Amino acid sequence: MIAETMSVTLQKINKKIPLQKMIIFGVLITLLIIFSLFSSRFFTFKNLLNIVRQGSYVIIVGSAVTILMISGNIDLSVGSAAALAGVVMALMAQAGFPLPVAVLSAIGIGLIVGCFNALVVSVFEIPPFIATLGTMLLCRGTALILTGGFTVRENMPENYNQLGRGELLGIPFPIW
Fold first, then answer.
1. Which of 4, 29, 83, 149 has the largest CB neighbor count within 10 A?
2. Which residues contact 118 (CB under 8 A, 6 or more apart)?
3. Exposed, middle or buried by CB within 10 Å (0-12, 13-18, 19+), for 43?
4. In whole angstroms, how large is the CA radius of gyration of the chain?
């Protein structure tokens, strides 16, 4: 009797939540248990804040792509466009431009790349996968040329470093 009831209950759950999602959730719970057993610092506020900070960049970029994916499109260039925007912003900050100007320039790069993708896809009717693949390579190559293949980190103004590492009310700026 109990076995039949559990079987019926599992069938109902499986209809609402597919087995794949249940397995992924189970793996996540298992990893959380294992990590918490091996480290007393795992479930600390500082560690959880660090995990969210590291994931915030992916969430920011992924939220824009979500809208495209809902409409049945894809944009492969977002990561490279974000890298190019970051490179331009860093080089401008390094050259002594005020931080708001550097930030607006980075936003402008993102707008230009997005408008270019929209133009290529809508006007020239190139499939989004192909168009954004080309844009990805264009952005990545431009960032590589601008940096010479090296990380931009020398002579950065303190306010620029605060943008990525600073906090407001104990919560890092990238999370805000």
1. 83
2. none
3. exposed
4. 22
- pLDDT given for residue 9 in this prediction: 61
170 by DSSP, 3-state: which?
coil
Distance CA 140, CA 52 (A): 26
Q: Per-residue pLDDT averaged across 135-160, rounded? A: 90
Q: For residues 67 and 78, give the distance between their C-alpha atoms in angstroms, rounded to a whole number.
A: 13
**Kind plus residue range of the DSSP H or E element containing 72:** none
Give strand ranges (E) for 3-161.
Answer: none
How far is Cα 56 from Cα 60, in angstroms, rounded to an integer? 6
Q: Which helix (H) or strand (E) holds 125?
A: none
Alpha helical stretches, state H, the chain? 2-16, 19-38, 45-70, 78-94, 99-122, 128-147, 158-165
Neighbour tally for 152: CB within 10 Å:
18
pTM: 0.74
List Cα–Cα distances, 86 to 56, 82, 111, 137, in angstroms: 15, 6, 13, 16
Query: The tokens 């990525």 sit on which residue?
Result: 164
Average of per-residue pLDDT values in the chain: 86
